[in-house]
Amino acid sequence: MVNSRKTDSPESQALGSNSAAVIIRDMAIDDLAPIYHLGEELFTSDLYPYLYRTWDEWEVIGLYNTDPEYCLVAEIEEQVAGFVLGTVISKASWIYGYIIWLGVNAKFQRRGVADRLVDKIVERMIEEGVRFMLVDTDPTNAAAVKFFTRKGFGNIRKHIFLSMNLSKHEQYGRLVAYERDKAERAGKRRSRRPASNP
User: Fold this and answer.
1) What are phi and psi of 50, to 5 degrees?
2) Counted domains in the chain
3) N or C: which end of the chain has fewer CB within 10 A?
4) What is the C-alpha to C-alpha distance for residues 109 and 115, in angstroms, rounded to an integer?
5) What pLDDT sits at residue 55?
6) Residue 37 sits in the same domain as residue 86
7) Residue 18: predicted pLDDT
8) pLDDT digits (tens, 9 = 90+) for 173-196
9) 112 and 20: one domain?
10) Are residues 81 and 173 in the same domain?
11) In angstroms, how far apart are the furthest CA atoms of the chain?
């Protein structure tokens, strides 16, 4: 895998006479916080609980450290409009590209930002010898499924996630009660100690 690669010159494309240019560039260290916070806005627990559970600052930092050439930012008028974070997986004779995260700021949607980000990461992965690309999304995210299908992804498979709320588990309730009793006993011991005289 190639170390961090710089884009020779930022690519830009005017999208209509009233639209500003979309610039696709490599993610820089100063982008880590804005990308993380944009992801927090996009991958919320009420909309996408399974994306929400895995989105954190280490996701952004880790991919930036291990796969910087597949961490791209879209900018419009010097504002972060979106991002794509990916990786490459080598297995036997195949090299797979994987788009792990793709996000576009709501105020910049419908302006070709996601198209440009995906086109650029696909281009980079082809240059690296990737033969097969993967992407996943929540099956209820019809817009994402339609987008990726339009971009050429297919062979849709549904993946089932199961979960269990441990706060409703019998053992969890016993542990909480035990910890509460333990804290109360410790509090009572402290209150029984005689005050020391100066």
Assistant:
1) -80, -25
2) 2
3) C
4) 10
5) 82
6) yes
7) 40
8) 777 777 788 888 877 777 666 665
9) yes
10) no
11) 82
* Each residue's pLDDT tens digit, 131-184: 999 998 878 888 999 999 999 998 888 777 667 777 777 887 777 777 788 888
User: Residue 39: what pLDDT?
Assistant: 92
Q: What is the DSSP string of 98-131?
A: EEEEEEE-GGGTTSSHHHHHHHHHHHHHHHTT--
The beta strands (E) that lie in 20-70 are given as 22-26
What whole-number distance in Å separates Cα of residue 10 and Cα of residue 26? 9
Residue 158 lies in a domain: no
Domain that holds residue 180: 163-193
